[in-house]
# Entry
Amino acid sequence: MASSNEFWLDLESAPVGSQRDFSKAIDQLVFNEQGLITAIAQQFDTGEVLMLAWMNRESLLISLQEQRACYWSRSRNRLWRKGESSGQVQSLKGLRIDCDGDALLLAVDQQGPACHTGRKSCFYLGLKGLDLKEGQLEILNAPEIDPTSLYK
Amino acid sequence: MASSNEFWLDLESAPVGSQRDFSKAIDQLVFNEQGLITAIAQQFDTGEVLMLAWMNRESLLISLQEQRACYWSRSRNRLWRKGESSGQVQSLKGLRIDCDGDALLLAVDQQGPACHTGRKSCFYLGLKGLDLKEGQLEILNAPEIDPTSLYK
# Structure
């Protein structure tokens, strides 16, 4: 969708390589009513999508400062430095923003599995066949490590 | 995060290859207060993340029936068959669900650019360097086609 925000609109037609101060871009990010923005974590070298999580402004700033992914945990209602209890840290390798400033794409180097089930990716459930009536949800991946060893 | 939903919890420890009726899985998806769930569109062969959008239950069912991505447009407040006006259709090649049933990952074959700016991916803005004070937001990709030709 076209953005109604001048900052993002202006970038659409700017030449490749054009730059803006990132600190100003952060001020223009579109957070939702809870002050959150979606963040996709993608393994930087394989392209595997690992998980989708949420960030608030503070967790984004922490992620940049510490060069590791820090999210806002909606279930625990607090900052969540990915791997703080499991050790499964996501080193931050890059950050992208989408065309209307309301989604982030993190390039990360995932240490161990990203998923609390012990799997590399949280997207471990796949639809087998696209026929709704016949379609089956299938477990595509086994845990790489015993999840009970992750959280002690 | 561990899910509080028995359906997703039960799958965590089921063997690889285990199957569930997909129609039942859809009933267990976790839609937000607006009845929406996040959907990441990823180019099926290159792994490039193209965009993040939202689906409601109906748009998901349409996507499966028509084997092309159909989203819920929050700005237009209506169903949005991707490419309906631009021609930039996303053929659906696969669908995954994450561990707690609140995010979708679509494998698509994107016809032309996914982004309304004429770029392949909506994530065309990248942070150059991870230092917040020195960091610059940079335009990484040029449009592949003139965006004014997309919407007439």
Observations:
- The beta strands of chain B are 19-21, 37-43, 49-55, 70-73, 78-81, 90-97, 103-110, 125-128, 136-139.
- Chain B touches chain A through 65 residues (CB under 8 Å).
- The CA atoms of residues 85 and 151 of chain B lie 6 Å apart.
- The mean pLDDT of chain B is 93.
